[in-house]
Amino acid sequence: MPEHSLWAEQAWIDGRWQEAVLLDVDAQGCWSRIALGVHTPPGHARRLPGPVLPGLVDAHSHAFQRAFVGLSERRASESDDFWSWRERMYRVALRISPAQMRAVAAQLYLELLRGGYTQVCEFHYLHHTPQGHPYEDLATMCWSLADAAGHAGIGLTLLPVLYERAGFARPQLQADQRRFAGTPEMVMALVQAVRASARRHVNAGVAIHSLRAASLPAIQSVLQQMGQDDVPIHIHVAEQTGEVDECVKNTGARPIQYLCDTLAPDARWHLVHATHTTPREIDAVARSGAGIVICPATEANLGDGLTDLALWLRCGVPMAIGSDSHVVRNWPEELRWLEYGQRLLHRKRNVAAAPGLQDATAARLFDAALTAGATAAGQSRWGLMPGARADALVLDTGAPGLLGIAPSHRLDAMVFAGTEPALREVLVAGAVVLRDGRHPDQDAIGSAFVGAMRALWGDAAH
Question: Model pTM?
């Protein structure tokens, strides 16, 4: 007999709703067996209070930026864009302590669970003290994030970031980037420390901040030290037109083309944003086997632009989603933003759908994010399948947006008919971490977050 069993009237398996599903969980918190058409569940199985979706991976997060959400929506000069936002964002980057990082991240991770994510990829570059010195334990800030994830109950992929310069032609960091400084050796030491810690539901990959922030020799050194190790490699690329122009000026090539021509990415690579592209670049990424990570709400908030979603999908490039700066912290809204941006751009509807392949927009985007997110997080198996971690989202069919919706259209309604995820329960590794939106320790987590915000911002945060 399994460790325990769950039964759902309906579950999303292999890209469609399946009926009367029995899900067995083993002692390690993984699905050991999934049986379809079990209309009379065994007596030992717990009946879940609604249909079941797999949890998604949030494939791109800067947790500390949760402390900045809502505090950058005023303009003090004639121009306000990504670069002016970045300068203001550095203020929190220079202030936040390890304890404050833990408090902010725990609140964020609780909110991500409410938003239907059960794993988060942390693109982590706040390595040093506010003065720019290494902590006595180099991984101090990593442990703040891991502690926060453990407290909230979410899975965590830590991605220590290589960040060594201010730009292609600026070999030193700016003063306000001093906490980010890293070398290939330091990045790999952090990866090894995270692995050696063997924390439950915590794994590690590596990240390169961007082509502008890391030199070619340093990137090549990281890759050489990694060898053929099958771990995810993340990099920001082609987010802003200014970055594209700077790359062309200094290398003679656009960022994605330069990346593909010079570094030969493979299926381990995940290109974050990939906003400004040409068909030739998309084809190069498709041939490489690399994936992309789109962050629709953040890209909208920062005025980045819109990627060529239709061509990425047509070329079969794996596409995960991320919440990045955390102006939005649930995947239904991210997928809605992803599709609506394309509708406004092309003045058409259901741009992501593919009649004859997948005619439902929500299903195509959800399944893409499900599969690519797993790879971005270094998870070999993910979703409702044997061997995957037993993560699940139990829908509330009585919630606004799902009330009265035909069972076959519930995923469509999650993305396009609601305002927030309609979840009765969220499970990670077979255990309920949220029930009716509540976390057992949410009051303490919220109180610590408020304390951190007051310390960081004073009255400006209230």
Answer: 0.97
- Claim to verify: residue 211 and residue 294 sit in the same structural domain: yes
- Could you tell me if 323 and 405 lie in one domain? no
Is-contact 53 395, C-beta < 8 A?
Answer: yes
Same domain, 61 and 14: no
pLDDT tens digits, one per residue of 93-128: 999 999 999 999 999 999 999 999 999 999 999 999
DSSP characters over 249-315: HHHSS-HHHHHHHHH---TTEEEEE--S--HHHHHHHHHHT-EEEE-HHHHHHTT-----HHHHHHT
| Domain extent at residue 266 | 57-376
Strand intervals (E) in 205-251:
206-208, 233-237
- Residue 186's H or E segment, with its range, is helix 184-197
Separation CA 60–CA 62 (nearest Å):
7
Under DSSP, is residue 449 helix (H, G, I), strand (E, B) or coil? Answer: helix
Q: Is 273 a catalytic residue?
A: yes
Identify the active-site residue in 62, 234, 270, 273. 273
**How many domains are contained in the chain?**
2
Handedness of CA 47, 330, 420, 404 (dihedral sign): negative
Q: Are residues 239 and 106 in the same domain?
A: yes
**Same domain assignment for residues 187 and 222:** yes
Which of 24, 324, 391, 396 is catalytic? The answer is 324
pLDDT digits (tens, 9 = 90+) for 164-178: 999 999 999 999 999
433: domain CATH number is 2.30.40.10
Tens of pLDDT, residues 311-333 = 999 999 999 999 999 999 999 99
Give the whole-angstrom CA distance, residue 371 versus residue 253.
Answer: 31
Nearest C-alpha neighbor of 321 from the set 54, 45, 60:
60
